[in-house]
Amino acid sequence: MGQAVNCASPPLHFYISPQFILLPIAEAMSLYFETAEILNQTGSDRESLKSKVYGNKALKSPPAAIYALASEATKWSAIVTEVIEKSGILALEKKV
């Protein structure tokens, strides 16, 4: 009899960010959390997105990746919100 071979693929440990930078999964999650923090900031309305990102020296993720993700998120925000509302998916989602 032949020897059993494990053909399962190795776990995915990396994620390609919007800027095509290879990031470990933990850093990719940090990218999304840091982008959400920047988008939720209640600072000056006069401050641009670019200055919020590049002016923040405490970021772990590359500022270019955060800026790309934030600008795409704001560009599509109205459409995504409309799709979510019309689909009724939030009513089906379990409350935590």
Give your account of this protein's structure:
Helix 1 (25-39) crosses helix 3. A hairpin with a 5-residue loop joins strand 1 (14-16) and strand 2 (22-24). This protein has one domain (20-92). It has four helices and two strands. The protein has helices spanning 25-39, 49-54, 63-87, 89-92; strands at 14-16, 22-24. By secondary structure, the chain is mainly alpha-helical. It has a two-stranded antiparallel sheet with strand order 1-2.
How many domains? Answer: 1
Average pLDDT figure: 77
What does the radius of gyration come to?
A: 19 Å
Kindly state the percentage of residues in helix. 40-55%
Q: Which descriptor suits the 3D outline?
A: globular
Number of strands: 2
**Beta-strand percentage range:** 5-15%
End-to-end separation: 51 Å
Give the SSE string. Answer: EEHHHH
Summing up helix and strand content along with how strands pair, one would put the structural category as mainly alpha
Reported for the largest beta sheet, the result is: 2 strands, antiparallel
The strands making up the biggest β-sheet line up spatially as 1-2
